[in-house]
Design brief:
The complex is a heterodimer of chains A (637) and B (135).
Chain A (H helix, E strand, L loop, with lengths): L25 E6 L4 E6 L2 H7 L2 H12 L13 E4 L13 E6 L6 E6 L3 H7 L4 E5 L6 E6 L2 E6 L8 H12 L4 E4 L2 H4 L7 E3 L3 E3 L4 H7 L2 E7 L9 H17 L1 H9 L5 H7 L20 H7 L1 E5 L9 E5 L9 E3 L3 H8 L7 H14 L3 H16 L5 H4 L9 H12 L4 H5 L3 H8 L9 E2 L2 E2 L9 H9 L12 H4 L3 E2 L2 E2 L9 H16 L5 H4 L4 H12 L5 H21 L4 H4 L22 H15 L9 H7 L1 H5 L7
Parallel strand pairs in A: 1-6, 7-12
Antiparallel strand pairs in A: 1-2, 3-4, 3-6, 4-5, 7-8, 9-10, 9-12, 10-11, 13-14, 14-15, 16-17, 18-19
Chain B lengths: L1 E4 L9 H11 L10 E5 L4 E5 L8 H5 L5 E3 L5 E3 L9 H5 L6 E3 L2 E3 L9 H5 L5 E4 L6
Antiparallel strand pairs in B: 1-8, 2-3, 4-5, 6-7
Chain lengths: 637, 135
């Protein structure tokens, strides 16, 4: 028999005060130490000024985290946050987990696919906020507004797949599960949170925040429905969004080949990471491109909740030592960091390493960066068999790589040093290793090497969660695209990049307040997103107003990062690797000079209305209403 | 006429469930949909489970108030006026696709002949099957 349910009107979820539709009107706050849970209303004007998602996430984080608190302190709140379109038929929405990041010490909003965040919204809350530390390993069961704290001793030490399966066996298929693996338990600073079904809040080490709270998993079931302001208008906007996705060749490439469809482009220009970013093009691209994936591994398409794109691919390894493994395909970032960066060209091996990281609970981007760094240090004689515990490390050799990955997850020997990320590992190892520690603002560089894109370099230098490719993607505008102000200079030139990066960061911050997936943006226009928002909530914004929300969110996060100790001088730097000329690809020869970095950041600060140190000027604070927004809404206790 | 699915095409996106649930309740939650998806083989397979408008509908057999009936188009329907919400039909349903909400049972009525889930499915994993081959 299927679970019964009783639909609660939206007014019931907000103490009788109707929330802005599309939203649930309240947050659920859980304290693991006190074993308490309570609901708090969200003031309506917060929806107008910050919308939800990323905007609501930074607001809650700013209010709840005592300034200067370490990311692994029990007071660091884990904030699962949804947006007004989450859980509806609006195509391609993701989940968002916000906290202060262990890896960077900065704000972190980590987006994940799957079904978990939708279920969180169906519990009747726009956000679930977890603070405190359980005295013993614990997992949480959230059923609508009911919270149960259950002992997780039997789950501690188990991998993410086993943990998810065990909890679902216990609670039933209708619960959705988020959990950590051994890496999160061992406070690896790039540990991920596995969100059912094995999609990941990957970047920044939020899995370690789970671990520091003795929190193994969260199981969620919600029986509430999301209602919208204008149902007919909403369905019309959904149809329009779907038509835009169908008409976009970029979207259809994602549907066919996943994000791996981006690989030939990245490889041609020289953005693809090869051997710890020492090169920018793979030697045998045809061995690892989308067609090779389809021919060797592909079984069927897979999609996140409410998404028609189905960029996910389920695979079955047919050949070699890992034959018989059912796994997800490797998406572009992992092809870059585990494939190119470690010089693994067998798709089967890449897929197996990918799943090994997923099960241990490690972000594959940072893992590929850290392992690539370790291999280079080994080749240069800075690490040897004594320091690695007998492991011989070399590019293209999976055995040593897999052994090292396990050592990192369990913090054994050299793994303990590497588990803190490349920046910390280089600081510890010394001997100029920071020159090839490929990280920007503490975040291991993703599979878009910045050489060949001055805009990308600037996006990395100014990203709100560190050097991330998802906060602005100027490459798209520098390689032939145009932006609202016309043509953009190519990636080797600096002019116009400050304005471009600030504009796209604002737009993406606004879109992330809806918890969009960037792959949806490959087809859906901003205009259509605004139609979806208006029909869902009644909040009618033009593109200018929407960009203003994004700018407000971006500035608020900068204020948070400054408050937590971020400084431009200390953090906005490129490693020496990116100051050497790019050896191959269309952008061959491009490199960053110190003067260019200063010039780019200067342009950017002017475009943002920030002073020379990257702090919002008084006038900027005023027109964005930041003073008012910094006043606490959610009480710490 | 009834619904059939092709598990090899389903992507587990739940658009069918969201569409169905919204048509019936004007609110979004896939569990409001009158079909469901079973994920199996370590996530390799997702199979939409639909109401077959059974030849021998167990839901109809157990309904004491006579709310479950077969209409002139051979669609098995539930009359909400007669339904007491006892849940017996949901309990015995061979495919577990009857939902009890607010003390009333709901089942697939093929949207009167043009099922919205079929139109909404991005990969055409759902289709309408006619009665021609039925015993």
């Amino acid at each position: 028999m299927r679970d019964g349910m009783s639909y609660k009107g939206i007014a019931d979820c907000n103490g009788g005060e109707p929330a802005m539709k599309g939203n649930m009107g309240q947050i659920l706050r859980i304290d693991l130490g006190l074993k308490t849970a309570r609901q708090e209303p969200i003031p309506k004007d917060l929806y107008s000024s910050l919308i939800g998602g990323k905007g609501l996430g930074i607001k809650i984080l700013m209010d709840l985290l005592p300034p200067g608190t370490d990311a692994l302190d029990p007071a660091n709140p884990l904030i699962f946050v949804t947006g007004p379109l989450t859980g509806t038929l609006a195509p391609s929405m993701r989940g968002c987990l916000v906290a202060k990041a262990p890896l960077t010490g900065m704000f972190d909003d980590s987006y994940f696919g799957g079904h978990l965040n939708q279920e969180i919204k169906y519990t009747g809350h726009d956000a679930v906020v977890i603070t405190g530390k359980a005295p013993l390993p614990t997992y949480l069961i959230i059923t609508d507004d009911k919270v149960e704290f259950r002992e997780a001793a039997g789950l501690w030490g188990r991998d993410t797949y086993e943990t998810c399966d065990a909890i679902k066996a216990e609670l039933g298929e209708s619960y959705r599960v988020a959990c950590i693996g051994p890496a999160g338990e061992n406070l690896v600073k790039f540990a991920l949170v596995d969100c059912e079904p094995h999609r990941h809040a990957g970047r920044g080490g939020l899995g370690a925040v789970f671990g520091a709270k003795n929190l193994k998993a969260v199981a969620v079931k919600g029986t509430n429905g999301v209602v919208v302001e204008d149902p007919a208008g909403f369905l019309a906007a959904v149809d329009k969004a779907n038509a835009e996705l169908m008409a976009s060749t970029a979207t259809q490439d994602l549907a066919e080949y996943s994000s791996v469809s981006l690989f030939p482009f990245a490889n041609e220009f020289g953005f693809f990471p090869v051997r710890n970013f020492s090169d920018g093009t793979a030697a045998k691209p045809e061995a690892i491109d989308g067609k090779a994936h389809t021919a060797r591994l592909w079984m069927r398409h897979w999609a996140c909740a409410g998404c028609p794109i189905h960029c996910g691919k389920m695979s079955y390894i047919r050949r070699g030592p890992y034959a018989g493994t059912i796994c997800d395909n490797v998406e572009y970032e992992t092809v870059g960091l585990i494939g190119g960066n470690l010089d693994i060209s067998s798709l089967e091996t890449m897929s197996f390493i990918n799943q090994t990281c997923d099960k241990l609970g490690l972000d594959t981007i940072s893992t590929g960066g850290v392992v690539g760094f370790a291999i280079e240090a080994f080749i240069k004689g800075i690490l040897d068999r004594d320091t690695t515990g007998g492991i011989k490390l070399s590019f293209g050799e999976p055995k040593g790589i897999i052994q090292l990955i396990r050592k990192i997850a369990f913090r054994e020997g050299i793994g303990d040093i590497l588990a803190d990320g490349v920046a910390a590992a280089a600081a510890k190892l010394g001997r100029d290793t920071e020159e090839f520690a490929c990280q920007i603002q503490g975040l291991e560089t993703p599979a878009w090497g910045p050489r060949g894109s001055a805009g990308m370099g600037l996006a990395y230098l100014t990203g709100d969660r560190g050097g991330c490719h998802q906060r602005a993607f100027p490459i798209g505008f520098e390689t032939g695209g145009s932006w609202p102000k016309g043509e953009m200079a190519d990636g080797r030139r600096t002019e116009g990049k400050g304005e471009l990066v600030a504009w796209e960061q604002n737009l993406l911050a606004a879109l992330y307040s809806l918890t969009i997936c960037e792959f949806g943006r490959s087809g859906i226009s901003t205009e259509t997103y605004l139609e979806l928002l208006a029909a869902a909530t009644g909040l009618s914004l033009d593109e200018r107003g929407f960009l203003l929300v994004g700018e407000r969110i971006w500035n608020l996060i900068r204020l948070f990062n400054l408050r937590e100790g971020w400084s431009q001088e200390k953090s906005a730097r490129l490693p020496a690797r990116f100051k050497d000329p790019l050896p191959s690809g269309l952008m061959k020869g491009h490199k960053f000079t110190d003067e260019e970095v200063v010039e780019l950041i200067g342009q950017y600060n002017i475009a943002r209305g920030w002073d020379k140190t990257g702090r919002p000027e008084q006038a900027t604070m005023e027109y964005l209403g930041l003073q008012e927004l910094q006043k606490p809404v959610f009480p710490r206790e | 006429m009834h619904l059939l699915s092709d598990a090899s095409l389903c992507t587990d996106c739940r658009i069918c469930q969201l569409t169905c649930g919204f048509a019936k309740t004007m609110s979004f939650n896939p569990s409001f949909g009158l079909l469901r998806i079973e994920v199996k083989k370590e996530g390799l397979v997702a199979e939409p489970i639909t109401c077959r408008q059974c030849v021998n509908p167990l839901c109809l057999r157990v309904c004491l108030p006579g709310a479950v009936h077969r209409d002139e188009d051979n669609i098995v329907r539930i009359d909400p006026e007669k339904c007491t919400g006892c849940g017996a039909c949901a309990k015995v349903c061979a495919y577990d696709v009857i939902v009890i909400r607010d003390r009333t049972a709901y089942k697939c009525d093929l949207c009167g002949g043009a099922p919205k889930c079929v139109t909404a499915c991005p990969t055409r994993a759902l289709q309408i099957v006619t009665e021609a081959n039925r015993p």
